[in-house]
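Page 47, continued from p. 46.
Same chain as before, 164 aa.
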Amino acid sequence: MSKITACLWFDTALEGGAEPAARFYTDLFPDSSLDAVHRSPADYPGGKKGDVLMVAFTLMGVSCTGLNGGGQTRHSEAFSFQIATETQEETDRYWDALTAGGGQGIACSWCKDRWGLRWQIVPRALSEGMSDPDPDARARVFAAMQTMVKIDIAAIEAARRGEA
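Result:
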């Protein structure tokens, strides 16, 4: 059992809450699993016996709990999952899945899914370009990234080489 778990608060009124979100995430990302669905043993204020209270899942090796806590708290830009990608195809697949059905692109690799959770889909080419030992290459990569919502790997690599 992991000593640290990301606990994500969901509202069942928003796309069904924690269980459909966890199923979506674990279907989308490798090394992921839906580990347990915890249901209420009795009726309670605001819910009924059998309602999903929490979902335990593993997301790319990270332990997570999805808590159906209600609508008074929303996900915030202060927290996001950052996913490193190798290819444009992988970047596009994750980006397109996360922004579908009410999600949205934000800027510079950031997007929001239909449950309001923030993600950063970051190609390794961007990370490598931002840490290039040549300060001019870093500046070109940074400038190119600033014009993007979803990252275009070919454009980042061209900027790094000084071809853009």
